[in-house]
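Two records follow; treat each independently.
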Amino acid sequence: MGKHEFFDQMTASAAAWALKKTRFFQDSLESNSFSDLLGSIEITLPKINGEGIYEVDCTDGEEEYDPAFHFVSYKGNDYPTLIYHHGNNERPFHYGLASKNTFKSILMPSKGSLPANLISIRAPFHQSLSVYTAKIKRLSAFMGMLSASVNLMEALCQNFSKNQGKVILSGISLGGWAVNLHRAYYNSAYAYVPLLAGAALDDVFIGSAYQQLTSQRAKDHPEIIQEKLNFDLNFSQREEKNVFPLLGRYDQFVRYDRQSKSYEGIPVKVVDKGHVTTVMDTKELKKHIEGCLPRE
């Protein structure tokens, strides 16, 4: 085992120990499909008056969600808009030195020089660890969380494409899955830049090292997890060459051999690192995202 694989394995083990008896989908495997959830979750954007943090009204009639976005930097209507979605269990609006926030580490340092308007999304249930760990026990809440993020992306795409025209969606890990889901079901952005994600989400919970955090209930029914979480078919039916993925060759969570199949016929940027070590390589991630911004 190399160092990249080692860091991923140890991270999963530490997370499993820290969460103690909390495991993904331990309470219920029942859920509507992504298609149904995306159709039922309603987003009401607040009036956007420049830079700042905006809470968003979001519900499907049964579950209440609490997504939000931070309009970090406005350059002008002549610039594209880059919308970034964080990874699993981050605190995307916390900018302290010790805060878990990939937006802060990858894009915040260059917000003034980045040739784009810049927005950071906060997925539902990510205001606190206690809320998040309570929700992930149900597959329906996890899928609803992702669907709410996707519908927030779509609402922002529609809002900002009226003026700027070109909206780029990017995200890492959990955020990368949301970006790919948006492409699979809406495909209304100018470009997609998923980092450490594919379209076979079941493999994260059933096949990868991350399965240490998966409940026995889910492991006993891999066919349900595959049916509910995978969106390979919808993703592959998009013919536009508008996705620019990045994967880690030694990633033990988003396994390269499995997830690279999601991008058949599409060039994939591959870094010789694992999941954790790729997340730490902020210069490479920033370079990849910036390289996907449109140039006039």
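The next record belongs to a different protein.
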Amino acid sequence: MANRPMATLMRTDRRIVIAQEGGLFHVRVEPAPDGPDMTGTFHTYRNARGHAGGLRLVHRWPVEDRTCSGEGLGK
């Protein structure tokens, strides 16, 4: 079968960003989607990464980890 580009209804310019500020981990989607708020603030990196991973599984957006905690984890 010939290789053809796949049509998609999902936006591919969105990213899930994990950032650390003031001892807390923030997860947000950039650019912010219309509809429900998908941001979250967590006390641990593990919880923030879990939230970001769930968003990635549902929406297929890539995760951009801007924390030092994410280094070497095979993002």
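Discussion point: The mean pLDDT is 85. How would you locate this feature using only the token line?
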